[in-house]
Design brief:
With about 80 residues, this protein is an alpha/beta fold. It has one domain: Response regulator (Rossmann fold), CATH 3.40.50. Helices cover about 40% and strands about 10% of the residues. The chain has three helices and three strands; from the N terminus they run H-E-H-E-H-E. Strand 2, helix 3 and strand 3 form a beta-alpha-beta unit.
Length: about 80
């Protein structure tokens, strides 16, 4: 996925930047890969209307965020650190 490569590149040139994926991909494996690139948030496009601002707030506060639409996510928030 190009977005994963982009996240890796962003992390290399700007290590302090916060990365939130906005995607249609609901696969838990993809979520894990996204967080392994250094992302702190993963928001489904279908949940963006109700969760994007929450995700931004949590990520800026130092927490990770995963959309509630991802099966196995814990209340829209997970710890990947």
């Amino acid at each position: 996925m190009r977005c994963l490569e982009a996240a890796k590149r962003i992390r290399r040139v700007a290590p302090g930047v916060k990365i939130i994926f906005l995607t249609q991909d609901t696969g838990k494996d993809t979520v894990g890969i996204a967080f392994s690139t250094g992302a702190q948030g993963y928001v489904l496009k279908t949940d963006a209307g109700s969760e994007l601002l929450i995700a931004v707030s949590r990520v800026l506060g130092g927490n990770d965020f995963v959309s509630s639409g991802i099966k196995g996510a814990d209340s829209g928030e997970t710890e990947h650190k």
